[in-house]
Specification:
CATH class of the largest domain: Alpha Beta
Number of helices: 6
CATH superfamily of the largest domain: ATP synthase, F1 complex, gamma subunit
Helix content: 55-70%
Length: about 300
Amino acid sequence: MASQRDVKNRISSVKNIEKITRAMEMVAAARLRRAEQRIHALRPYADAIRRMTRQAAEAAGGSVPRLPILMEHDNVSTVALMLVTADRGLAGAFNSQIIRAGVRAQEDEKREGLSVAFYASGRRGVSSLTFRGFDVRESFIGFSERPSYANAREIAEKLMAAYVDGDVDRVEIIYNGYISPLTQKVTRETLLPLQHAAILGEDDEDEEEEGEPGHRALVDYEPDPEEILARLIPDYVEISVYRALLESTASELGARMTAMRNASENAGGIIEDLTLEMNRARQAEITQEIMEVVAGAEALG
């Protein structure tokens, strides 16, 4: 059995860890509120950009393939997978579930005879992919907790350039979608080509809420829909990446807050167990001392 001093030292160490996890939980909770506000402010704008892009694509019709950024490649051989992770850990399964989803997607594409080009944001994603032996074509680090639109534009420009230059034939993004501090959903979306993007398959719920189901407002485009679409596509890709970054940030903070709360609760349980162990050690020492006194008294008598 450990001595009282050893148990006291262990209790002191666990209490210090508990203080750190409590502090990290409070910091994550404070930042999470700001991240939620940014998401709530962005979502209407992002939905509007997607809706406008979908409507312009439908109006352009057969003119869509004439735009370089919208040209669907004849032969699909390489798929770009953009993984959105965090720069730090201590967030439960937040990073690992994105890595697993990316690896599964790579295996699925490989079975289809396609190769995968990995793009990653966040030090955890870059280091994990490199450790697993995957080649990361482009990495973006240093902003996972506070992404800006400039960061999203940088990522979007790299992805669009790779698609237009023919280095990749499809662009997908995998990130943690924010639902609540306790729940994050791994989301996989196709950004390019637009013909396979999620926005062209979305239901027109917004239009039906504003009017009668099945009826849309007629829109006259000036200039032509394809020219408007050419201007909208970069904005659509940028805002989609930016939304993924913000969703991932909120998910990271929620996951870290939950993980630190669980760690603090576990630390409390360990402290209780160690306190009981220390009490047993104290009782054992007292009993030993009494037995020694009794034995000494009997020897003298």
